[in-house]
Specification:
The chain is of the alpha+beta class. Helices cover 19% and strands 34% of the residues. The two termini are 21 Å apart.
């Protein structure tokens, strides 16, 4: 099971606004902001794992060779309803995302939407019936 993941972004404020708004429909919110340039998203203070770390500054344990991803990453967030997938998509579009697949059926019992985040990553929300 995933404990957490993180990635560096070009503009932390822009990324934080984007993720704060598009992850809210699937139950994730900002639970920590760090002065060194990072924001952590999770379900709540009580249910903080797995969490997502985004930052404009690299953590101390990342070396000089660690850079903002040269190739896009793909992240899929589990939604509890099709409506949550729809709300994720519309919030992402409103707050700086680019369409990469409107909400809809993607196969047997799979409903999903895809957006490109402000840093070029493919972000998905999905619901399995």
């Amino acid at each position: 099971m995933l404990d957490h993941f993180g990635f560096v972004v070009k503009d932390l404020n822009r990324a934080a606004v984007f993720y704060e708004n598009c992850l809210a429909p699937i139950g994730l919110k900002i639970i920590e902001r760090h002065d060194y340039g990072a924001v952590i998203f999770a379900r709540s203070e009580k249910d903080k794992f797995p969490f997502i770390w985004i930052g404009s500054a690299k953590p101390d344990f990342w070396g000089a060779n660690h850079q903002i991803s040269a190739s896009p990453i793909h992240l899929c967030f589990k939604a509890n309803t099709m409506d949550a997938v729809d709300r994720f998509y519309h919030a992402a579009m409103k707050f700086g995302g680019t369409d990469n697949g409107m909400p809809g059926e993607r196969g047997s019992n799979y409903y999903a939407a895809y957006v490109i985040d402000p840093d070029g990553n493919n972000i998905e929300a999905s619901f399995r019936k």
